[in-house]
Amino acid sequence: MAVDEEMKPTVSRSSDPEAILDAKDPLAAAGFEDPDAGLSDEERAAIDRKLLWKLDLRLVPWLSLLYLVSFLDRTNIGNAKIVGLQKDLGMTNSQYNATLTIFFVSYSIFEPLTNVLLKRLRPSVFIPIIMMAWGICMTCMGLVKNFSGLMAVRWFLGLAEAGLFPGVGYFLSCWYKRSEFGVRMAIFFSAAALAGSFGGLLAAAIAKMDGIGGKRGWAWIFILEGLLTFIIGVASFWCVYDFPDQAKFLSDIDRKRVLRRLAEDQQSSAEHEEFKMDYFWASLKDWKTYTGAVIYMGADGSLYAFSLFVPTIINELGYSSIRAQLLSVPPYAAAAIVTVAVGFISDRTRQRGLCNIAVCLVGIVGFCMLIGCETAGARYAATFLGASGIYPVIANTISWASNNTEGVYKRGVSLGFIIGWGNLNGIVSSNIYRDDDKPRYYPGHGVVLAYLVLFLLGGTVTQYLLLRRENAKRRRGERDHWVAGLDQSQMAMLGDRRPDFIYTL
């Protein structure tokens, strides 16, 4: 969340206003020590850059790997389909779509609960456990013999994976300043695009194991990727860290620096907040939870439709199954690059809404081309625009919601609801590309286009305008009465409803 540069941080852990007013350093008076007191601005900036680099190396690469594996595991069923999964299990088209749908049912239902569990159990315990669980589910997908078995395993896969994406988004938001979070979230989410790219290459290679051990190529895709996930889950007990106040890879001095940085950014992530139902209800009463859910609905519904069916779409352009796997790689690679670039730009400009609008328009053009163009080459080019217009808005929307929701638990609950509602639309995405509609898939492309225009673009414009209006009221002092007569602790409880809290646009 961009804080107006003329405003000074008001974060406090003290209920004695006089002590804060008298202190030369209000943050120190509030309990946030400054281990670099007395150093010049240049020296402090150098220390801050070194600390940020340490956080980036420890947190972002491994978590990105986990999401790459997660997205690979939930979407590789699309790769398995074009090498014989549906035929070998004797499934009808509607049964195949049902196996896609059931994943999103369990995935969405349990997402709002996972961030509270993450905070209670600690990331270094919760994340490895759920990874090992979904690794087992993935391996079992390669052993199923019929439609019922695949349905059961996909249900539990959704349940196990539910905690990763909202959990990591919430976790990273508790480490970085708001102006730093977007590009880190973008790098993390770009792993989803890389998973699509890497998944096509991997599936093409593994499918050549067809017949080994009496297993079909699609079965080996699930078995090998599931075993890899389980191994990475075990390693995560040592490679996933806890929240800033508990992270063991930091020295005491660096831990104080991290907490102070968060306090300077007016983040309650710096404090030891205990869970209260008030935070849950505050999230449900916040209009931003619902506008964020609508925006994420437009982004996620489009994302899953694209990622689950792009190998099939390319296959229908006239290419063989192996070549279709390989041709699905470049659009995802382009999307990964654009995702990181948008994260960087939105951090620098603090205009996440405008970035969403610009990127969304690219996706709209892409799907209009898929509907209207006749040649295979033009429609393949459209997949580049579609991917580049969908993937970046996922990370940017989560960053936008995190920036504008203050309070550790409120942010966690809000992200759970926003992401959960978005993923629930995977149920729609799983059923819009039907074999009856090939090779042009007009209904599927039309539904994705509607999601992009109505929910992603429409929701973004609505939230952007409402936030601009609210910021104007706060700058004019029209919200100052909200804090009249409140002490410091009561003001802190207001979170993003404090009148000095200026929303990121």
From TrEMBL:
Residues 1-20 are annotated as: Disordered. The keyword Transmembrane applies. It is a multi-pass membrane protein. Keywords: Membrane, Transmembrane, Transmembrane helix, Transport. It is found in: Membrane. Residues 59-505 form the Major facilitator superfamily (MFS) profile domain. Pfam families: MFS_1 (PF07690). One of its GO terms (cellular component) is membrane. GO terms for molecular function: transmembrane transporter activity. Its main location: membrane. The chain crosses the membrane at residues 97-118, 125-144, 156-175, 187-206, 218-241, 293-314, 326-346, 353-372, 378-401, 413-433, 445-467. PANTHER family: PERMEASE-RELATED, TRANSPORTER, PUTATIVE (AFU_ORTHOLOGUE AFUA_1G01812)-RELATED. This is Major facilitator superfamily (MFS) profile domain-containing protein. It comes from Penicillium bovifimosum.
